[in-house]
User: What shape does this take?
Amino acid sequence: MGLTARTIPLVLPRAHDCITLFLGSKERYLEYFENTPGVYFKTSGWIERGETAGRLSQLTFGKSGAGFSFENLVEKYGEENAQYLWETLAPNYRQFTYIEMGVEPDDRFERHTRDRAAERGWIFEKLQGDMRLIEKLVAGDWDESEFLIVPPGRRIVAHYDERIVGAE
Assistant: This one.
């Protein structure tokens, strides 16, 4: 939010977060999110490059998706207040959902996610990913219902409806 297009237009998917891109549409994301509370998503890329030794304290929360990590809350409010805020506001995770994108060399990332779920006593689920939205972004097929084109001089703002983002 707040990013301003300067001399060239910006194009971004109308996405809640990266999971929307992996699932192929904001509608599929929202349906899954609303029907599956307490889910933490995994992909091969996240496991291979982004995981920090499985520490769930790195997770974020917040209505915009930008949220705060536990460490940010400690910096801003102190350890005791951060703990209270985290326990009160953070999602109550109880499931790992692995999104298979069809680019994995083998099943090691799925097995990794399945093992982490078992270690925590969580549910494991596997979903088939969908590259459609990523392919449309790269191909320049920017339908207004799925993409926001921000003209020069305008900035990105949050919309808390089906548009997700807008420009002003």
The first strand starts at residue 10 and ends at 13. Confidence is low (pLDDT under 50) at residues 62-66. Strands lie at 10-13, 39-42, 60-61, 68-69, 95-100, 123-128, 147-150, 156-158, 165-167. The chain has two domains: 1-25+130-168, 45-129.
